[in-house]
């Protein structure tokens, strides 16, 4: 079965529409926007009109939900043009899924219709300055004060925080709970007094879209802002959400890797040395063959995990495998693309140096690859090995 065969005709049209958008609107402007570190406001507005922000929102709330394989391929196309565009909608999708699966009726009605249009854009706030992957050790606390919670703490590396109207904040509503994760909740937070976006972090890549530090100093949040209405369920909720997040990161890696490969393949056919195109030199040809093979394997891993997710199965191992393999593949493919381009690969006049700067994010983001390996082996032991 080919990649396209797993999609409905409508979904194939969606992916082709996004591909055309990338080729016609993104590629001609990405280099200027990326080098200037400019937020792509016009491109984001076009993404809203294309319905990209509603792909994870149920129809009853105005969305146009697609299968997870379709979502993966849409994300790959966006990242092929500019990984930052895929990043700008990644957290939004996870929050939409969290609301759909766990939100109260009031929470769904309040947010999902406006999220479908992109009027409200959402992001997650998990990582803290003193810890990344160890979510249970977080220090951000929300203490009950009458009908509200008062939030104190800080978060870092929060994508799109300045421009997101809704933040799914992971925090401790019961700091004394044992085990610690039993006291964690997700609060649906909006900007207001007590929430400060303190600075945008300087980055190697992933330009244009901000990654921010957040400070919470007496932020007052209504008690009914707890996702699902029941405190203490946040850790399990976010673990489910991160399955989607890791699939999204795997798809971003696929897009970056594919862009690097396509540029390298085209260059290898145009560039000549010693009287022939460089792809005919065995070392370059071997690079291209390995790049294509690894990308094909990474896509199949990612689509397999996506199909399993759609079947309602737990996919923390499958999503972890996809994210691990796809991100490591993207990094190697980007490096090989630089090698194939030679000196031009080191020039900012060519896109391959951007792919090389963007690729590492997928290795360390949404749970480092070291953590992914821990998740994978834990599930292997729990499941008794690989399924037949």
Task: Describe the protein's topology.
Elements: H1 9-26, H2 30-36, H3 41-49, H4 68-81, H5 83-102, H6 105-117, E1 122-125, E2 141-145, E3 148-159, E4 166-172, E5 184-189, E6 195-200, E7 211-222, H7 234-270, E8 272-273, E9 276-277, H8 282-310, H9 316-341, H10 352-364, H11 369-383
Parallel strand pairs: 1-4
Antiparallel strand pairs: 2-3, 3-7, 4-5, 6-7, 8-9
Helix pairs in contact: 1-4, 4-5, 4-7, 5-6, 5-7, 7-8, 7-9, 7-10, 8-9, 9-10, 9-11
Report the principal-axis shape: globular
Low-confidence stretches: none
Largest sheet: 4 strands, antiparallel
Mean pLDDT comes to: 95
Radius of gyration (CA) equals 21 Å
Helix and strand sequence: HHHHHHEEEEEEEHEEHHHH
Number of helices: 11
Estimated helix fraction: 40-55%
Give the class from helix and strand content and strand pairing. Answer: alpha+beta
